[in-house]
User: Fold this.
Amino acid sequence: MWRLGDDLVVRIPWQTTSADTQLLNEHTWLPTLAPLLPLPVPVPQRLGQPSERYPHPWIVTTWVSGTPADIAPATSGNLAAEALATFLTSLHQPAPAGAPEDSVRGGPLAQAVKGAAQKFMFTAMADACDEVANAEQKPTPDPQAIRSIWDDAVAAPQWEGQPLWLHGDLHPANVLTSDGDLCGVVDFGDMCTGDPAFDLAACWILLPDMKAIEHFRSACPLAADHATWRRARGWAIWRASGSLAVATAGHPGGKPSWGPPALDSLQRLTESVA
Assistant:
């Protein structure tokens, strides 16, 4: 990303085909959604076309001020919970025909990770938990409790409502904070449609404690449904697993700041069912 004056930013994806598709989806759909959302988001202004100098599309969006939550976590508790609930309630509206879909995000949890991949996820997650916990001098979440939460989420009744708009990538690096509260949401490249439980899972990794998570649930109508909440807990484990993998990947590409929020989210999950 390159700042363009005070109000704009140029985003030039370093990935390939998948990033191209994500950027085009964001350019097509986010301008329609942005006015409905209560937190600032990067609104596309211009779409750059591939050329010999750079063979992929690129985009100019509005700049959103704030600090990524993996660097400055939300600390305001109920205020942050209210902000997240209001944002997701505004976002989770029925999507029109032709809206982007994702083969994993927003679909059945059981299809996201299964068989050998599921076994590997839990093995890799346990190793990464140990590494981050040792570095942070924090306890390691109970792996049996985590697996029980996952199994319960997989067994929960599936979403039978209309496909709803999803952000699709609500981890701390994509949510901005200021003075301990949420102040913006960025990177809508994975925006898609489906089960809102996928986005609701973000409360476990973004909010500071169980009191705030309980406030979020009471303030977010879709989170009140018990089956949806069970699925959200499973997606929170999926999110934590991916974040821990990135945190412990080393260089290049590793982001150690992703580890502590993921570890804390697993600890909160296990506390919630203790």
